[in-house]
Design goal:
- By secondary structure, the chain is an alpha/beta fold.
- The protein has a single domain, classed as von Willebrand factor, type A domain (Rossmann fold).
- It has eleven helices and ten strands.
- A six-stranded mixed beta sheet has the order 5-4-3-6-7-10, with helices on both faces. Strands 1-2 form a two-stranded antiparallel sheet.
- Helix 2 crosses helix 11.
- The relative contact order is 0.17.
Length: 292
């Protein structure tokens, strides 16, 4: 059974929500053609000449008739950073969880899968003037530190993707998987371009574009006072008069963000905050052959 956000909202705390999504993902991967690639051997690699024989896993040999050696933290071949937009607009939500809640669960679930594979994972919580970082590590105990950081994040302030990209470029000297969770409501058109430019620095960038169903459908009829969650600005409008133009403009924004990612050869995933989150990650992993 897939886990929709309304169901997850009834679970108390990020750790429980993350664990539920991870269990859904692993169950889905076991049913997929990719199960042998990233699930069965998540903590092993196939033996190659030169590997330490003392690290051979004889139980794995008995089960699969192949030699596998256990991997350790210093052997990790992947560093990943979960970049979570914690600006004010990410606090919006009408489907049980806010955009920030969904971002935290997705980032936490990916972190769990990475740590399970003994890869190094860290997190960066970003907004205008803020960059709170937990550097990547591969230790199993590090997952608690990552989840605690994600759970402590609150939505406030503006979005500043250009500054985020500059800080990441400085702090990630080695090639890394950079997963960005944001609604991309940035007044600076250059912000997204600079973030995507991390690809040219040999980083593997994946974008999770968070969208609430109310932003897609604009389900308002009576005169409404809208307040910006980032700068406090207010405007009162008659939704019936602006619905068509709003939907056209918002669709252009979504398409432009997607097209910019594709043009930069960036993995793009649009995420509705009312859809099952294990299915979101299964789509993401499916494009990658079951691997992160």
């Amino acid at each position: 059974m897939s886990l929709d956000p309304a169901m997850l909202a009834r679970l108390s705390g990020l750790k429980l929500r993350t664990r539920a999504v991870v269990e859904g993902v692993l169950s889905g991967l076991h049913k997929s053609p990719h199960q042998g690639q990233s699930v069965e051997f998540a903590e092993h690699k196939e033996y190659a000449p030169g590997d330490e024989l003392r690290h051979l896993d004889w139980k794995a040999f008995g089960k699969f008739d192949k030699y596998y050696v256990k991997r350790f933290e210093h052997e990790t071949n992947l560093r990943a950073v979960m970049v979570v937009d914690s600006s004010g607009s990410m606090g919006f939500g009408t489907a049980g969880l806010s955009k920030l809640d969904v971002a935290r669960v997705l980032a936490g679930a990916l972190a769990h899968l990475l740590v399970r594979a003994q890869d190094a994972v860290g997190v960066a919580l970003v907004a205008r003037g803020r960059f709170a970082e937990v550097p990547p590590r591969a230790a199993a105990t590090h997952l608690t530190t990552v989840l605690d950081a994600l759970e402590s994040a609150g939505a406030s302030g503006g979005t500043e993707l250009a500054a985020t990209a500059a800080t990441l470029a400085e702090k990630l000297p080695r090639r890394a998987l950079v997963c960005v969770f944001s609604d991309f409501f940035d007044p600076d058109d250059e912000g997204l371009k600079r973030l995507l430019a991390l690809k040219r620095r040999k980083h593997d960038v994946a974008v999770f574009h968070l969208v609430d169903p109310a932003e897609l459908d604009f389900p308002y009829d009576d005169p409404t006072l809208f307040t910006s969650m980032e700068d406090g600005g207010r405007v009162e409008v008659n939704p019936r008069e602006i619905r068509e133009s709003y939907l056209e403009e918002f669709t252009r924004f979504l398409d432009a963000t997607r097209d910019a990612c594709r043009a930069a050869d960036i993995d793009y995933e649009r995420v509705r905050t009312d859809e099952p989150l294990d299915e979101v990650l299964l789509r993401f992993l499916g494009r990658r052959g079951g691997r992160l």
